[in-house]
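TODO from last week: model Chloride conductance regulatory protein ICln isoform X1.
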Amino acid sequence: MGLGLRNFTERNNNGQPDLDTENGEELMHMQRGVDLGLANLPPISSGTLYITTKQVIWLSDVDNTKGYAIDFLSISLHAVSRDPDAYPHPCLYTQIDTNAEEDGSENSDSESSDIQDLSRITEMRLIPSDPSQLDTLFQVFCECAELNPEPNDEEGEEHDWVFSADQMEGEEEEEEGYISPNPPNSLGQSNGNHDLARTVLELHINDQRFEDAEEMEHDEDGTHN
């Protein structure tokens, strides 16, 4: 687990973030015109988003002293949100794992723009000025999440989106061994929480059982003929 959201002000002469290139950190994607929503606070505008192989960095375009970063290890889930009932603007929604104890003190006052304690921020929204870029941002997040598996994973355990059917359901080993429950049109990915992936896997297994039952019924009808 990472340390949650943190301030980031290290910029190079070009105004871009200083990366840890000596340890292999590389820039994967840059997106201009991105507002930042933290918890229930009003969005912060406007900034540039930098996605690297290790972290997500947002730097303000109007205040060189303002910026935030979060390691991919701290992001437990990310998903595209286009439902205006959930949030007024299309965005990439993320959940953040933190080491802070939950005491209800997360900044929930929507009238205040003051961020008291970043370690208690558990939700972040990236709001591009061009909503058509959301799918691209989501895909880059998926790729970078794959590059940052949980360090405490048991030996031999696959990434969260790839599970053994017998590990999840206690069933007999499937013929293909491992099943990827990530559907082609998925709009969400769990980086550290198995609940969403488990639900998709259960649907996959139930569909397979239904197909097997149909095949058995068809074979029995053929036998009687």
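Done. Confidence is low (pLDDT under 50) at residues 103-113, 155-186, 193-205.
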